[in-house]
Amino acid sequence: MRVNYHFKNDKKHKVLNFDLPFDFGLLFGGSFNEDFSFFGTWSQKYGLYKFFLRANSIFGPKNAVNLKFGKFEPGITDGYVGNQRLTHDYTSLLSYSPSGSAVGNPSADWSPRSMMEGLELSGILVNFFQYILGITKSLGLGDFVISVNKDYYARVAYKFGGYGLNGFGNNLDTVNKFPVNDKSFTLGLYSYVGNTFNPDSQQGYTNH
Predict the structure, then answer these.
(1) CA–CA separation, 184 and 205 (whole Å)
(2) What sign does the CA torsion over 176, 164, 57, 62 have?
(3) How confident is the prediction for the chain on average, in pLDDT?
(4) Between the CA of residue 38 and those of 27, 45, 50, 197, what are the distances in Å?
(5) What does the pLDDT look like over 174-197, one tens digit per residue?
(6) Does 123 have pLDDT greater than 80?
(7) What's the number of CA atoms in the CB half-sphere (13 Å) around residue 173?
(8) Read out DSSP for 50-109?
(9) Domains of the chain by residue range
């Protein structure tokens, strides 16, 4: 609800407006067993703009090798971009768009939180070390330049202190009754090498 004021014949009038939501969204997900799941997001305005399948622990130790396939945010941050903000807007890092992109064009405005079609391999080793490797379809390129229609990214990170990235040490049935008390910090490094296409200038550009 919003109250607006306007003036007519030097008199102040109050107008009451009701702002209805501009979109309706649906989140859905499920699992077939402990290691195979799916998740998606559908909205009236954008349609099915996020959907992926995930298989955990496909071989080796538990959580060491996991596979994600579909349309999702590349895991070059921590994989939970919606949690990395204290306000309605995303941080400048997650909203960064490289020079040359078409401002306002969602097909060309790449950012670290953009939904991408791809394949991602990830895992957690010795409880506190994380790695992520991925390959995605370049945003905006489509069939324009098939030879450079792929982007590549990687991330490594280590968590110091607290619970392990795989939940190691979180035993609610015994000593610790407050799992939110996780005094720690995580140090990570990522790299993204890609290409995209600006439909306004009909030119491609690199996005490294």
Answers:
(1) 39
(2) negative
(3) 77
(4) 11, 22, 11, 30
(5) 555 555 677 888 899 988 888 766
(6) yes
(7) 0
(8) EEEEEE---SSSTTSSEEEEEEE--TTS-S-GGGS-SSSSPPTTTT---TTS-TT-TTT-
(9) 24-207
Rg, the chain, Cα only: 22
Distances (CA, A) of 154 to 44, 57, 63, 93, 144: 33, 19, 18, 17, 25
Copy the structure tokens of residue 31: 């699992």
**Helix, strand, or coil (residue 178):** coil
- Tell me which range, 24-28, 181-185, 199-203, is most confidently predicted by mean pLDDT: 24-28
**Tens-place pLDDT, residues 138-150:** 765 555 555 567 8
CA neighbor of 139 nearest in space, from 43, 45, 205, 189: 205
pLDDT digits (tens, 9 = 90+) for 66-95: 999 999 988 886 655 555 566 667 777 777
pTM of the model: 0.74
Cβ atoms of 153 and 190 closer than 8 Å: yes
Residue type, 69: F
